[in-house]
Amino acid sequence: MSEKPKIKNCIRRLRFDHGEMTQEELAGRVGVTRQTIIALESGRYTPSLLLAMQIARVFSLPVEGVFEFLADSDHP
Amino acid sequence: MHVQEKQAWFILVVAAATLTLLLLSLSIFGFHPAVFGAFGLFGLSGFAALIGRRERKAGLVIMDERDRQIALYATTGAYSVFWLLFVTTAMGPFCVLGPDATVTLHTTTIANIAIPALLVLMVVRSLIVVVLYRRGSRV
Question: Which of the ends of chain B has fewer CB neighbours closer than 10 A, N or C?
Fold first, then answer.
């Protein structure tokens, strides 16, 4: 059975690149809890499209600049 | 720790205390209907709603999309378990004793079925909440 496709992100690196933004600050700017940002950075949570776009907007990047889609190897 | 997770742990602790009190009462007084009054301790689980008041007053985000997703999974899982127990309890006597049987029940029997059912529902929900917060809730 093939695994579910995963989404990788570089939120942690982007936070540090943007004036060492804290998790709490990022959470406040996108309207989620700090625990959700922690879960996002550790890969334990896949955000909704809306949240992904809000996060990308904070860093002035397209969604693909923040999140990377890792397709399953069984799919062409 | 998130507010919803704190509430779940609180309910689990109250449920554990309730079951402990019930078992102690049963061991001391035997199988007497009044012993099941120990379930009244589970009423303390209502205070779980007070957890998060401070954050709410401060205007902080209490429930975001991840929390709503976890709440949905937990409620669905708890309802599934509850439904299995409910059907078993409803159909069990019918299947075992037959459709023409009559049973005399103590007046506390209804409460002694309903309250544990609620306890099971809330405990299962809380367990799922705790597991999903610890493990992650990938869709």
Answer: C
The complex's ipTM works out to 0.77
Cα(A57)–Cα(B41) distance, integer angstroms: 49
Q: Within the 2-41 window of chain B, which residues sit less than 8 Å (CB to CB) from chain A?
A: 2
CB–CB of A47/A40 below 8 Å? yes
Q: Tell me the C-alpha to C-alpha distance, in Å, between residue B44 and each of B2, B23, B50, B85.
A: 20, 18, 11, 24
| Window B:35-54, CB contacts with A under 8 Å | none
Nearest Cα residue in chain A from B139 = A46
Query: Tens digit of pLDDT for each residue in B4-59?
Result: 999 999 999 999 999 999 999 999 988 887 888 888 899 999 999 999 888 888 88
Spatial distance between the Cα atoms of B42 and B38, rounded to a whole number of angstroms? 8
